[in-house]
Amino acid sequence: MTATVEHVANIGRPLRRKEDARLLTGQTQWTDSIKLPGALHMTLVRSPVAHARITSVDKSAAEAMPNVVAVFTAADLGDLNARIPCVWPVTDDIVMPEFPVLAIDEVRHVGDVVAAVLATDAASAEDALEGVHVEYDTLPAVGDLEAALADGASLVHSSAGTNQCYTMNVPNGDYAAAKAASDVVVSRRFIQQRLIPSPMEPRAVAVSPMGTSGELTVWSATQIPHVLRVLLALSTGIPENRLRVIAPDVGGGFGAKLQLYREEILALVLANKLGRPVKWTETRSENMVATHHGRGQIQDIEIAATKDGILKGLKVTLTADMGAYLQIITPGIPLLGMFMYNGIYKMDAYDFSCTAVFTTKTPTDAYRGAGRPESTYAIERIMDELAAELGMDPLGLRRKNWITHEEFPYTTIAGLTYDTGNYEAATARALELFGYDELRAEQKRRRDSGDVVQLGIGVSTFTEMCGLAPSRTLGALKYVAGGWENCTIRVLPLGKVELVTGTSPHGQGHETAWSQIAADVIGVPVEDIEIIHGDTGRAPYGMDTYGSRSLAVGGQAILRAGEKVVEKAKLIAAHQMEANPDDLEFVDGAFRVKGDPERSTTIQAVAFEAFTAHNLPDGMEPTLSGESTVDPADFSFPHGTHLAAIEVDTETGKATVRKYVCVDDVGVQINPMIVEGQVHGGVAQGIGQALYEGAEYDDDGNLLTATLADYLIPSAADLPSFITDQTVTPSTTHPLGTKGVGEAGAIASTPAIINGVVDALRHLGVTDVTMPATPEAVWRTIVAAQSGAQA
Amino acid sequence: MARIAVTVDGTAREADVEPRTLLVHWLRDDLGLVGTPVGCDTSNCGSCTVMIDGRSAKSCSLLAVQADGTQITTIQGAANGEWHPVQVAFKDCHALQCGYCTPGMVVAAIDLLSENPDPSEAEIREGLRGNLCRCTGYHNIVKAVQQASELMKEAAK
Ligand code: FES
Ligand code: FES
Fold it and tell me: Which of A133, A219, A406, A756 has the fewest CB atoms within 10 Å, i.e. is most exposed?
C-alpha cells in the first residue's frame, strides 16, 4: 500500500450516504421520469401463448386509432429488426438460435414480442394494443427440462434440430478413483427453481435523436451503460460514437438490468428512423415475463467420503434452463458456478458437467450471485446430507474438510487459487453470536417431547468469487469482453474534485464509498468529491456494475488514479517550493518539506498552479488529473459462516426464521454501514428463494406467478432482523484488500435456511425439501416422509 | 374530463382530468411530481404511497377524480422546511439503497407512527407489509422507524 493511504481518515468509517438526500426527498431522476418534448410512447404486442406460429398480423385497426403514429411488425422493420447477440458462446458447438427483436413467424414464450406500437401519449399506445390482431397456430410448449432432451421432443427452435443448447464436461482429478477410495457416497437431486429478479423499479428506456452534437441519447434503467453502448452499436449498426448511453437513477438491478433488451434496441432504432424521441416503460406485469429470469437448474450432486468424513470427490451434473432464447450471457451462468461447487473444501476430484436446454419460457440470465448461489446451495446442502449419513455434526464435518487459515494461498480442485481466508475465525464468531449449543439442546428437548413446533439449525459456510475478472481468464472462458475498470480523478482549479468511474451504481452507494477512498488517497474532504458515473458521455470508459466487481476492481482503479494525481502534484509542489520531490511528505492533503514544517502547500493550491500553468516544471503538462484502467490480477474470495434457527410447525408446514446470524469476511471495508446493508439485502433475497419465491408455469407454458400478488417477494412481515458481524481478512490480490459484498448474503443464506428446515424434520425421515419451502411444500414433504416415500 | 381541486404538497391545484386517469399518473405526468414512482400494476408494491388527508394510500389504486377535495402530501412535500424525523432516521439508519421504494416507505412509516407513536418491531413489520423493498431486507427500515419514533417523542417533550 502506498504512503498516501496510511493516514486513513475515511476508509473504514460508516459515513452516511451522499446519495440519500435526493432519494429521501423525491429529487430523483428515474428513467420513467424523463420527459422529452414530442416523445412517442412505445407499447409492445406480446405473445399470450408459450409457443405458436404467427399466421397473421392485422394492425389496421390500431393504425386507425387516435394518436397512433405507427405500428411495426418484424416485416415492417425489415433490416432494422436487429438480433440480440449472445456474447458468451461457452462451447465451440453451442447452438445459438437467432433472437430477433420482433418475433419472425414464431413466438417462443409468453411475453415474446410481435409488434411495437408508437403513439403520442402513453394511454393511446396502451389502448392501441387491442387494435393489433394476431392469429396464432399453437405449437407444443416445452417446459420440462428432461422431457425436452428426450428423443422426439417438440422443439423450441425447429431449425436447430435439438433442444440442447450445449453440453460440457470438465473433469478435475480422477473422480472414479476418488469414489472407489470412499466408504460413503451420498447423492441428491436439488432443484434450483426459476426466480424473477424483481428490482422495485421496472425497466424503462427513453431515446432522443436530438443530442447536441447529433448523437442519439439513450437513457435506460440499466446496470451497464458502457457495455450497453457497445452492444447497441453491435446489434443495430449505429456507430458507437453516435451513441450516448445514460443510466440515471436506477432502482435496483440484481442482474436483471445486466442485459441488452429488445425494448432498448427497438426504442433506439425507431427513434433513429422517425427522428423523434421514443420512450418505453415496462409495467410490472410485463417485467414478470419480459425481463430475464434467474436460476432454473436441476442439480444432480454426488459426494464421496471416507467413513471418518474425509471428502474424496464430488460429481456435479447440471441440467440448466436457458429459456427460449440466449440473452447476452445466458449460457455462461452455470459456468460462473462451476468454479465454486467444491466450496471451501479440499478434495481429490471434482467432475462437473452441464447440459443446457431450451424451453418455451422467458430467457434466464444473471440473478444476484449468478451461478454461485446454485453451487453454494448444492455443496452446503450435500455436506449436511453427508453429515447425517455419517452421524456427524454438520459443522464438525465442515471443519474436517475446509481449507485451514494456514493453508492459504490454496489452489482448489476447481483450479482457482483462493488468496486468503479464515473460516475458523468467522465460524467461531458466528457460533458465539448464535448460541449453537443452547439451540441444539432446545432442539433435542423438542424432539424428545414430540413438540408440534420443531427446531432446526441450518449451517452455511460459504465462499464465492468476486471481482469479475482478469480479462485473460474471461477470454479463456470464451467470454467476449474484458474485466477491467477505469477511473479518472480530476482536481479542478478551485480544489474541488471530480471522480469519474466506469462503475454504474443502482443502490450500492458508490457516490459515498468512492469518495471515501479518493478522499484518503488525495487528501481532500469527502464532501469536495463529486462522483460522475453512468453516462458514456461523461464517464467514457467502464465495464459497469455486476458480480460484486465494482469495489473489488473499480476500487483499484480509484486508488491508482489517485496515486497518479498525488505523484504529479508532488512534482509541482516540489518545483514551487524549490525542494527535491524526495524530500516532500504528503499528509492529509498537504505537501511538506520533511524537517521544515514552514514550507508546505496543499493539493488544492497545487491544482490551481496546474491550472494557471505559469510556473510548472519544464515539460510538464498543465492540469491536475490522473487516470487508471486496472485489469485485476485475480478474483477475490469473500467468505462467511451463516447460521439459521428455523422453527417448523409440523402440522401446518410453516417454516419461520427465528434467528439468523451471519459473520462475513469481505476483507477491508470501505464503509461498514453499506457493507452491512448489502448483507441484509442479500440474505433477504436468499431467504426469498428458500421460502417464498418461485416462477411457476403450467403445462401450456403460462406463467402462473405473473404478478407481485402471486410471486411473493418477502415483505417486512415475512423476515426477521438479522444479527451480523464481520471478520476482516484482507484480500492479497490487490492493494486495497477489499473483496466484494454485493452477492454474499444471497449466496450464503438459501442453503442455511433449507438446511435448517431439513434439520428440523430429519428425525421424521425428511432428507430434502423443495424450494420454495412453502407451508404446503413442507407439509407434503412431512406426509411423504412419514408414509416412507422419501428415502 | 372532470374538474378536480386538490391541494398537493401545499399548493392548490385545479385541473381537468380524464375520468380513467390514475392519481399517480396525474401526479407524475400532469403535475410533474415524479418523486412518487410506480412499481407495479396490481397495487402490491407500495412504491406509489402518498398521504391523502393525513392517511397513507396507494396512489395507483385511486383515480385522480377520487382525490377531488383532498389534501395530498407526496414525498416531495414530506419535509416541511426541515426533514421529517422519518427522513432523518432513514438516512441515519441506512434504510435505503436504490431508493425506489423509499418515497412510499417513508410516507407509510409517517402514517404508521401517527397511528402508533411507539410501535413494537412486530407492529412495524406488520404495518409496512404493503410496501415492498428489494434492497434492504427491511432490517434497517425497521431500525429507522424505531429511531424516528424516538426522535418524535423527544421533539414532543
Ligand atoms: S405502484 Fe405498486 S402499489 Fe402502487
Ligand atoms: S431501497 Fe431499493 S427497493 Fe427499497
Answer: A406
Candidates A32, A251, A721; nearest CB to B99: A251
pLDDT tens for residues A281-303?
999 999 999 999 999 999 999 99
Q: Which CATH class is domain B85-156?
A: mainly alpha
Contacts of A754 (CB under 8 A, 6+ apart): A377, A381, A458, A690, A769, A771, A773
The verdict on B110 touching A (C-beta cutoff 8 Å) is no
Would the CB of A507 count as within 6 Å of ligand 2?
A: yes
Domain ranges of chain B: 2-73, 85-156
The whole-number pLDDT of residue B99 equals 98
Does residue B42 sit at the A interface (CB-CB below 8 Å)? yes
Inform me whether the pLDDT recorded for A791 exceeds 60. no
Q: Rounded to 5 degrees, what angle do the CA atoms A67, A69, A74 make?
A: 135
List, for residues A681-724, the tens digit of each pLDDT value: 999 999 999 999 999 999 999 999 999 999 999 999 999 999 99
Residues sharing a CB contact under 8 Å with residue A268, sequence separation 6 or more, in sequence order: A207, A216, A218, A232, A236, A238, A243, A278
pTM for the complete prediction? Answer: 0.96
Asked if the model's pLDDT at residue A91 lies above 80, the reply is yes
Q: How far, in Å, CA of A565 to CA of A585, rounded? A: 15
Fold of A34-139+200-252+257-290: Aldehyde Oxidoreductase; domain 3 (3.90.1170)
* CA-B97 nearest atom, ligand 2: 1
pLDDT above 90 coverage of chain A, percent:
95
Residue A2 has pLDDT above 80, yes or no: no
Distance B60 CA to ligand 1 centre (A): 5
* Contact with chain A for residue B153, Cβ under 8 A: no
Residue A324, all three cell numbers: 427460449
Give DSSP secondary structure letters for B72-126. Answer: EE-GGGS-BSB--HHHHHHHHTT--SS-SSHHHHHHHHHHHHHH-SS--HHHHHH
User: Which one, of A742, A511, A754, A532, lies nearest residue A625 by Cα?
Assistant: A532
Position A6 pLDDT exceeds 80: no
Q: Which of B41, B79, B138 sits opposite A684 (nearest CB)?
A: B138
Q: How far apart are CA A301 and CA A188, in angstroms?
A: 5
| Cβ atoms within 10 Å, residue A89 | 18
Query: A8 falls in which pLDDT band (50, 70, 90)?
Result: low
Non-local (6+) Cβ contacts of A157 within 8 A are A95, A97, A108, A163, A358
> What interface predicted TM-score (ipTM) does this complex get?
0.98
Residue A780, pLDDT > 80, answer yes
Mean pLDDT of chain A: 96
Architecture of the structural domain at B2-73: Roll (3.10)
Residue to substitute in B90, B91, B94, B136 for testing ligand 2 pocket (most ligand atoms within 8 angstroms of CB): B136
| The CATH number, out of the four listed (3.10.180.10, 1.10.10.60, 3.30.365.10, 1.20.1050.10), of the domain defined by the range A484-630 | 3.30.365.10
Domain chopping of chain A, boundaries: 34-139+200-252+257-290, 294-468+634-790, 484-630
